[in-house]
Amino acid sequence: MTSWSIEDAILLPIVLILNIIISIIVKFALKNKSDKIKEIPRTAITVFLILFEVFKLLYNIIKGTFETKLIPLHFCSTFLFWFSLTAFTKGRLKKIGNSVGFIAMVMFLIMFYLFPNLIIGDASANLFKEFKHLHTFVFHNLIVLYFCLTISLKLYEPRLNHFIYFFISFTIYFIITVPLAHVLNANFTNFLYSDAKILQDILNSFGYPIYSIFIYVAGMIFAFLCCWVSSVLYTFINKKVA
Predict the structure, then answer these.
(1) For a tag site, which of 136, 163, 169, 239 has the least CB within 10 Å?
(2) Largest CA distance in the chain
(3) In angstroms, rounded to a whole number, what is the distance separating the alpha carbons of residues 119 and 113?
(4) pLDDT digits (tens, 9 = 90+) for 19-30
(5) Which of 107, 238, 228 minimizes the C-alpha distance to 161?
(6) What is the rounded average pLDDT of the residues 128-143?
(7) Structural domains of the chain, count
(8) Is residue 1, in this structure, part of any structural domain at all?
(9) pTM assigned to the model
(10) Under a CB-based contact definition with an 8 Å cutoff, are residues 141 and 15 in contact?
(11) Helices 91-114 + 131-152 axis angle, to 10
């Protein structure tokens, strides 16, 4: 299974460029505004994503095509939660949502643009053929826009000690979601199987306990590296600008 389809190679760069352009326009439009006003575009994306997800579930229930894998417990589905904390809470909860969401977005972006097939499957090739493909494509690219806005509007300052929020949050997520994946027979976050050969080989060779532990440990290492690199780059860029 190749990482990029022809459709991915055409559509994803175009949408990325559009997202960057939008974030730059919004940056200048809100240049002298308060952080509360600057949060409005991200809040709008959050509300749309929630409504879009609810519509997807209702659409499939009414159509009779609902499956347990549609339940929003995938890694990317957690953005609904982190974005909501950021948009609708204050203080520590808002900080946790912003921090965990940012680290998760960096992880997502790396995987999305290296291995789009693992994230959105063949959605680019079948964008307007079925609603599920349209939903997948739009949902994930709006996460990209959210990230671009976070950067352009300077709505988050990466710090290495914020990793603790991610560690605790996704440890809880792991403890809850792994058993549910097996009970519901839904491949949340590749907990049942994976299209990535190295992961599937580990599962086939060592079974689910080792496979699950490997995903958890590898995921946490990946998250820590993303957090560390982000904080280093942020500090470096700030010093250069200053």
Answers:
(1) 239
(2) 58
(3) 9
(4) 999 999 999 999
(5) 228
(6) 96
(7) 1
(8) no
(9) 0.95
(10) yes
(11) 120
Residue for token digits 């349209």?
134
**Residue 183 in domain:** yes
Closest by CA to 224, choosing from 143, 144, 145, 164, is 164
241 falls in which pLDDT band (50, 70, 90)? low
CA atoms within 13 A on the CB side of 221: 6
**SS3 at position 89:** coil
On whether residue 109 sits in a domain, the answer given is yes
Is residue 205 in some structural domain? Answer: yes
Closest CA to 82 of 27, 147, 161: 147
C-alpha separations of 188 from 10, 22, 214, 215 in Å: 28, 32, 15, 12
Say how far apart CA 78 and CA 102 lie, in whole Å: 12
* Sign of the CA dihedral with 72 first, then 178, 94, and 36 last: negative
Question: Residue 53's closest CA among 34, 23, 35, 74?
Answer: 74
The average confidence (pLDDT) of the chain is: 95
pLDDT of residue 1: 47
Q: Which range of residues forms the domain containing residue 85?
A: 6-241
Transcribe 104-166 into DSSP letters.
Answer: HHHHHHHHHHH-HHHHHTTTTTTTTT-HHHHHHHHHHHHHHHHHHHHHHTT-----GGGHHHH
Task: In whole angstroms, give the CA distance from residue 180 to residue 173.
Answer: 11
